[in-house]
Design goal:
Oligomer: single chain
Structural class: mainly beta
Shape: elongated
Number of helices: 4
Amino acid sequence: MDGTLKTISVAAFLVCACLICVLIVLPQDFFQPKKQEWRQSTVIEPDFSGAAADERDDDVRRMPYESGLRTTLELESGEVQTAAISEDFDGDGADEQIIAYRNLTEKDNPIYVTFVDYDESGKTYKRLWSAPTGATKPGTLSLFSIDLTGDHINEVVVTGMNQNDEQILKAFKINRTTEEGAPAYKRIADLKIDGTISVLETERSQAYQLGFAGGVSFNISDRGRDAYSGNELDQIENIYAYNPIDGAYERIRTTKIPGAQIEERRLKELLSGNKTEFEQFIDGLWYQVSGDGTVDNEQYIYFDTSSGEVIFYSGDTQQVYAWQNSYPTRYGMYISSQNISVPTLNRKINLELESLDSVRVKISEDVRMRIFMNAPWDGSYRKVKVAHNVEKKDAAAAPYIDAEYNSPIGRIAFLPDGAYNIELNGHYRNGRYSFFSLENNELLEFVPDGNPGVQGAPAGPRDARQTYKVVRGGQDADGISLTRVRLSTNGISEFNETAVQLSPIARSTDG
């Protein structure tokens, strides 16, 4: 009996000793639940302080988890950083950087990406390779990393727009091999279209998420106008899939999308009850058309969402109403407004959507005084495009012109879309303008946009809208004389100010 107990004690001691050894060898978190680790690229927002002045307002899309890291490499002269991401691209355990930069020494200032890694021998960071992206507009650029091919290695993806307003997408796979002569990277996708490009992400398996297996590659789609169709709304969608044999994306399917489907979807968006969506749609100048689609009356309505105004133009009047409130309706929008000069004049505007380029307008007047300046505004209206020209019976009644003038207050450019700009000694002022007629007088109104400008020029940044009486001819047959006036319920009254003479600038017809 004593021998049996002795044997059991020895066995128990050996088992305990083995367990202690095992616990010492195993990691501390062996019995804790495994936590899946997601790697997020670090995105660095650039500083445009050294960029060209006309590009300082360009915004780079801010990615998640932005940090205050600096780029590791000083760019060359003429190169301006646009965006950057930091990540272990080559699998060596240390982060590298992909920097997107503009080259100001080249035409259209194209955007490139460059790969920056740490050089152990030189104890410094150096640029290993650079590649063009095809994008030229920094405000549209998006730089990110994503595992497109499903092999657990992130590719570098660049999207943006070029000088032709085309969307571009380029994807680069970084080579992790160290074989001599092997290319440093491979471009696996290179798309460009006058439309939209999207990465079609799909859910991957649990085995991929745990790192046990590869995943399906993501497809890429682009969608643009069908050039062979007479309908402007008809589109073509191309689907591209990754070919692992060739190591690049190739087109696998093309689908035609009828314009009726696109128009129907857009109409649903506008009538979804989203007030902002419909306001953006009606923003701009609209002209009245008859039931036959002809322009019988010179009547316009300008919806200025940024300034909160609705401006009515007819052959002899201009009426400006403050945009008070708007409410979405089943078929469009209901707007309440008030005349800025006569507060007792209120106008209710009921808009019904007819198509993607036309609305039906119904006006309800709330007039508390006897007045005879209201025009029959009810009817169908179409939106004026920049290139659209409506034939006028009287050039003086046209609200917009396309001309440039020299004057004592600077060089004034009137643009056909209703914008103006004034330049004097390198200072600029911008805003909106309109010509109109009232009491047999031609008038010109400037509405500033608030930009810093030139002292004494029309429509200063701190001034309200300014109205001028227009007299054509005089010292110059093609010139214009402007005299500042005030509009009120008593009519037109002039200020005691000297008239401003505008002399036309001849435009060159060369090239």
